[in-house]
Amino acid sequence: MRRKIDWSRVRRVLVVRLRSIGDTVLSTPSLIALKQFLPHAEIDILLEDWVAPLLAGSADVDNILEVGQSVSSRLATARKIRKRQYDVVFNLHGGTTATFFTFASGAQHRVGFQTYQYAFFHNHLIGSPDEYWKRAPVHSVEQQLALLGAVGIPVEEGLRTRLAVTPGAMTSLEDKIAARTSLSRDALIPIALIHPAAAFATKQWGIENFARAADFLHDKGLTTIAIASADEASVLEGVRASAKYPIVTFDDLTLPEITALASRSALFLGNDSGIAHIAAATGTPSVVVFGSSNRDHWRPWTDAPNEIVYEEFPCQPCPGHECKEFGEPRCTLGVPPERVFEAIERVREGVPSV
Q1: How many CB atoms neighbour CB 266 within 10 A?
Q2: What is the rounded distance in angstroms from the CA atom of residue 160 to the CA atom of residue 32?
């Protein structure tokens, strides 16, 4: 273990946060804390190239470093990191690749958790985030903030996720909406944004349920826009085919465009996913259906009105790749639409659930 970090001498910090959309969004409170404490230092973040555009325009980070999946990309990125001569590196991920970049940085101070598989590549090892906060369970955001707080960065429990909306993304989004529908911008307002897809079947509420929810929202005077990736286009088609009223769908929005769309929406409804975290980070009122996931660790981290809707099962949470208990994910498929509708009503009225 190295000596205590002299923060007055720190000029360049790297945050390593690989993996998904949600992981990236949930790292933003850590970036906020670092920028508040070290306003004159450069705060950089290393992200996978496909998710890096998500932080475009952020005032909380100075440089976004991107890495691809190929060996050549990783080696080139490692050289770039080494050349940057970081004083401190925070490994928020802990996976093998993230630890490789942390060690390859050559930084004098390399911070990680004792539970990481290759913890010995760090020279500031932190114990359990539960110990730092003196309570359990802790959210993913709090877990990451504990890594900062344990080495002297002031962190606040009230720090929330946030994303920037770039003018270019808003313009390109509006162009796509205009090309997809004859409705004027004013006619589209208010918008209900739906994301009916998920990484695993154990996290995906039924397509027919989303269709019913879209009809419910239509009856409440909201224009429904449903989004997914191109690989998930069949999910969008299923919702559209099952709904009574027209739904605008997109499977080609960029991450900055999704952020812009979420910021313009009066409500978000979706599964536990990275898109749900984008909506939360733009301050959009949200209703999120949970299945196999750890609700305490992955719920929306926002001050905007929000509710999570779920059915309790003793096997929750689980890894989520498949349902080994029942053969089908009853935890998410069994969530009644009526309970989601009730949550929507409360969130729109700003009334907390009981």
Answers
A1: 17
A2: 9
pTM for this prediction: 0.95
* Fold adopted by 7-149: Rossmann fold (3.40.50)
Tens of pLDDT, residues 134-184:
999 999 999 999 999 999 999 988 899 999 999 999 999 999 998 888 765
Please name the CATH architecture into which domain 167-349 falls.
3-Layer(aba) Sandwich (3.40)
Query: Where are the chain's structural domains?
Result: 7-149, 167-349
Asked if 7-149 and 167-349 have one fold, the answer is: yes
The dihedral built from the CA positions of residue 296, 299, 305 and 308, taken in this order, carries a sign that is negative
Angle at 280 between CA 183 and CA 90, to 5 degrees: 135
**What is the separation of C-alpha 319 from the centre of its chain, rounded to a whole number of angstroms?**
18
